[in-house]
What does this fold into?
Amino acid sequence: MIKSLVMEFWKIRRRKVWTIVAALLFMQILWLLWGVNRMDAHELSQGWMFFLYQFPLLNAIMVPVIAAVTASRLCDIEHKGQMLKLLPTLMPAGRLFTAKFLCGAFYMLAVVLLQIAVMVIAGLVLGFAGNPPLDKLLYYLLFTMTVSITILLLQQVLSLLFKNQMIPLAVGVIGSFAGLFSMFLPPGLGKFILWGYYGVLMFVRMDWDRVTRITDFYYVPVDWSGFGILVVAFCLIYLIGRSLFIKKEV
Amino acid sequence: MPDVITTTDLCKQYGRFMRVKDLDLRVPEGVVYGFLGPNGAGKSTTMKMLLGIARPTAGTISVFGQPFKSRNRLSILKHVGALIESPSYYGHLTGAENLRIICVLKGVPVSDINRVLQIVRLENQQDKKVSQYSMGMKQRLGLACALLGNPRLLILDEPTNGLDPAGMQEMRELICSLPQRYGMTVMVSSHLLSEIDQMATDVGIISQGELVFQDRLASLHEKSRPSIAVRTLNNLAAEKILGGQGIACLRQDDYLLLPQLSDIELADHISRLLASNIGVVRIEERRRSLEEIFLELTGTAVSL
It folds into this structure.
């Protein structure tokens, strides 16, 4: 498997997969830093919660697009050069599927780790109250990664099954909108939309007082049942997608 | 010679359409086996089944004497090189980088890259991106990929597609040389009879998914040997007289087909018929071309 994974990274040399990831991440960070540059004392006291609220919100819009583009960039090289006729004679198709997924997951992990690094550095520079909440940041890492790799997995299945990459990319864009809108639906409904899990697994809520115009953030218990559903969804997409890819004849 | 590939009642069905029907292939070791058939006859489908990238609807495949199953497919394919339809490549990588990926996945030493590049004469283009290659160069790179690890069996599906006449000739000469130089068995498909005639020692002809001929190429040529057609006023009596002289006759329409005879022998037999009061009204030399034989076997016009 390690050999196959190394080959996946070798294959995407000069494909500049990281550029689209970096560009979208850069936009996301700029957006957030623009929001924090004029924080008052009250807001600085809730700085960490502000980040842990805003990042999932922006992730719901941007990460599905990053996942769709990453999966498409990793998979369309196989379609373009008709490699799917040759590779199954050299390695098990299932291993190719898994190696490709792990390669894409590496980019998703890089995105989340960079986000956390930006949160910590920005928080310390701006002088947020208290130390970085390590436990909350670990939850953020776990939940964001799980949602992102599940979306990536779905995108990979579509990108491998469809030669025309417009189909998975359209699904990615529609998914990002669906995920964002699901946050405005009654709680529970978001669980029916994969892209809505950035919202489902958010553990910070916002309370905006109309009269005083003061925003307060507060922690809520983690929705472990939602996390469980997501893990089941991941397993199902993995098993079904892998099986469809293995059975696909060229 | 043992058979490298054996198939028994191999079938492939797509929807209602039977693309390959009850195919019994026998590819002997150390030969260039030409797999000939018109476009859409089922050549590529058969080759895909031999590589495990299409699943047979029915029938069995045996490669190197081992039954070809999903569990041992990859261990068998370690000794097989393949080029199916058009070459497979990563256009954004160089030729050498493409070969390196195949080397690693095949478990072949990277040092083999130079050897195969020399065989296909791509050593000077190895650092160029494959997207900048001409069709002929891509085809040669595809062959280089197939040759990595010096496989015992090469499966090449229309390897001269898209090549110019000089490239086609070069590819054919290279394929012909492989059994002698490297001890490989080569199964090569084409819809061009002349091409198979130049390359192959054995031939299988497929038409509408069915194998209509399989033997040494020489026996196909045998069928195109000239014969003498004689028409008499009493073919029955003439057949009896010629048979008495040890000449085997074949009746075809109003003619008797005699094997190739020298002029003196023929004159002698004709005199004998005339002496028996059998009027000889036509004597013709007939020769069927390979194309006519192909047409007869497949019922399809052949591409020349």
